[in-house]
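pasting for ref. prot 1 ->
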Amino acid sequence: MRIFLLAVISILLATPAMAESKKQAQARAEVLSRNKGFYKEVLMDGGISLTSRYFLPATRFLGVKMDYFASAPNNKLTKQDTLRQNNIICGSKDDTNGWLLYPDGAPRYRMIYVNGGKSGAHARSLGEEGRQRIQEYIAAGGSYVGTCAGAYIATKGSVRRSGGVSFTDLYWGLWPGYAQGTRLSKSFTTMSLPKRSPLLRYFDFGGDREVANIRHNGGCSAYEGKIAKLPEGTEVLARYIFDNTEKVQIDGKISVWGYKANEQSGRVVLCGSHPESIAEGERLEFMSAMMLYAMDGNPAPQIKGVLREGEVREMNKRTEDNDPAYTCIGDRQYHHFEIDVPRKCKRVIVKLDGYKGEKRYDLTLCAKRGELAFHDNTLLKSVARGFKKSLTIEKPKAGKWYVSVLCETAVTPLVGKYGTYYRGRIGVLNGVPYKISVEYE
């Protein structure tokens, strides 16, 4: 009897933790289930004056795909580093938007991760055009995680210990506040998560809401004080725990914070220390939680418009036309449309076609009633190779339906001296034009 009671007590004690673990697993799965309509999940910036990292453990831990740029191999900066960085972030004739954006300006990656290093030098190396491209990416719904220099560069500037604000024109201002240097180098910090920290949605960090031994080398905190107020909408995700000394007083200061400007923008998550290189334990979970929360801030896909019977919608505009509702589709991107099916309709026929002179690309056509159509949530789809096809919906229920076009064709990513580079169907980067129409019978 005693053994039985002990067993029951053990089960009862374990149940809350098990339930919480299941809840957190569901939260992680829910965020990752939205990895649709992006070329990949993560682009890692190890550009000029940043750490050239070749592996981000959290991407493998979460099972997401990543491309990366690693500059100055062997610490020897050349013109090739600048050329590669500009092509990736700012764009080129083969990809006028750069890697971060689709031809219509939508985010091509779910998030960008920016490494530590020298924030001012990296900002100068990208210049105003690079700054503008990063800002456009976040405003369009792409998310951001930055650690140490990657946190600094995302702010408006810094508050000096002696007082006063140092505004850095080339900083990106993704978070409209100021950082403050910790004056702590070659050391380790502990992070304390508030009870309501969104990072606790994904992991419990041992149940004590603390993550210890996070490398710190010249990082920062979010400034909150009289000189500059904490911007409205800032979320405190964690604070430092550190024994104060005469020179270093960061205990209780904001070490990780988040910000989302509006419903259509992506979420920015900034961290003053370095959890990114750890491949196990709570520090790996901590970095993964920051990435999950950033990606959780991606907005819902935009509807291109309503398809009307008898009208052929031509999706043939280019980036420079500045007409995203009619712009070409990019690699692994979805374009979503609405159709209003009338009562007593026997069938709906959606037709897709291309343009003469264009190379052949593979486009998939999907449809679903009441919610956006994706390849994996509907059986109503046409997956024949090429772009000329039709999709028939027999005896459809009246009401609002959604039709989507998916570009199956993508570039081929390879890895070289500077990280990821593209080969294969490069033309898809500037978009694939197509025509779409609907008929009711």
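and prot 2 ->
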Amino acid sequence: MSSSKNSWLVPVAFINIYVIWGITFLAISFGLKGFPPFILSGFRFLAAGLLMIGWLLAKGEKANSLTNWKKNAITGILILTGGTGLVAWGEQYVSASEAAIAIATGPFWFIAIDKKNWKYYFSDKFIPIGLIIGFVGLILFLNGSVSSAHHTAVDGNLRITAFIVLALSSVAWVLGSLYSKKNPASQSTFMNIAQQLITAGVASFIIASFRQEWHGFSFSNVPASAWAGVLFLVFFGSIVAYLSYIWLLSVKPAALVSTHTYINPIVTVLAGWMVAGQTINGSQLYGLSVILLGVLLTNVTKYFRLSKRSKVKIRRLKRLVNKSVRPYQPI
């Protein structure tokens, strides 16, 4: 899939990961009302993966390469089990918006770990400036969220542990994303996604077994709101948005793709306000505006970059103008 021939797909894919994954944090909180965290993760990943691979096998695609399964297993376990699965665990003790904010350090981890593209990242001064401004906005947003929240029902040490786990989930996500970008499997993007989801689902269920999450759990006791959250996670979070994300990694720099972690908290807060009646205070709004400025700066060069042909035409035009406009010399 060529990004030049399908340039319209890029903004659509960005919208998917910006909006859908923002709502996903809220959907996870709904799912946790009836599912333990790793059973929730395993169910959403495995269901989505089986749906996709069933459709692909029916179309005649093959899935018999052990090398491809291995590459996709590493990617899936790091990004999905380690990244998203730990988010589900963390959301037991922090709100959806706090979880979205906590993992928004992703772009910084991308730049720190992705040494191959350091020259690109630091050659464009707007990218590091935008990331720094975005991080400042996240701090302001987090301060506004914490100051207005009441967490008397949750032990303070558990909340601190949750934030640490969420930070680790961000690192796992970055490692998996960079591995996927540097070690692509030789199959269609759809098949790669399906295999990643399946292996992540199996790994999540194994973790759930070690954590004894199956003891006392019954599907019959899951409320309708939790099922609604799971359905959203399966079809939109695990298929539409994740497919968009993996494709964007193949056509855009990883640090730019990771700016979704700056937009997701905004969407999470707005979705929480509209769906769950959560409020937004002035400090949060101020932080959100700073975050938006940071994201704009990380992409400003891309928005206003001219082609080489356009630059040549502009230089020629300037020369013509300089020749035609001569200083006035009195006779």
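Residues 327-331 have pLDDT under 50 and may be disordered.
The radius of gyration is 23 Å.
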